[in-house]
Amino acid sequence: MAASPTFDLGDLTRRMQSSIASFKHELGTLRTGRASPNLLDPIQVEAYGQSMHINQVATVSVPEPRLLSVQVWDRSMVGPVEKAIRESSLGLNPQTEGQVIRLRIPELTQDRRKDMVKVAHKYAEGARVAIRHIRRDGMDILKAKEKDHSMSEDENVRAADQVQKETDKHIAEIDQLLVQKEKEIMTV
């Protein structure tokens, strides 16, 4: 008979924290009217015969609150980087000076802000689903342990309660981050 998988609440917690870190990163890519180097993270550049993230061919910095500066390392990559920025859904107009591309961050309209909030909600729901999947994995392990009698019913109930508490804590953190980001986006 095969041994049941081991139950490790610490592992489940680490996986949930990883999902939250990923959610925070996704929120960082949403524009709030202020320049952020994370804003360009989703942009892919066709470089050296393959698709690369912009931070693999250039350095992105924030010299002013409403300006991004993209320092392209290889002179031959300036055109592809500029093209990738222009074709992205960010609505930015690059201005090139040698190997430096400057991006002015325009004011957000009310409609654009509402669209950003919708995207933030979509990211939050994806993070909640990821947390619930991790919870389900933990509960499946507990069911298997109870079924093969390697864990008593009382231990199983206690462990399931711990998993649920961790799940609730992480879902609440996602909701709190979403409220903060929504407030940040809607602040003019």
Features:
single chain, 188 residues, alpha+beta, Topoisomerase I, Chain A, domain 4, Gyrase A, domain 2, 2 domains, four-stranded antiparallel sheet, two-stranded antiparallel ribbon, protein biosynthesis, Ribosome_recyc_fac_dom, RRF_sf, Ribosome-recycling factor
Would you mind describing this structure in some detail?
With 188 residues, the protein is α+β, with helices and mostly antiparallel strands. Helix content is 54%, strand content 16%. It contains four helices and six strands. It has helices at 9-28, 78-87, 110-147, 153-186, and strands spanning 44-47, 50-53, 58-64, 67-72, 94-97, 100-104. The strands form two sheets. It has a four-stranded antiparallel β-sheet with strand order 3-4-6-5, covered by helices on one side. Strands 1-2 form a two-stranded antiparallel ribbon. A hairpin with a 2-residue loop joins strand 1 (44-47) and strand 2. This is Ribosome-recycling factor.
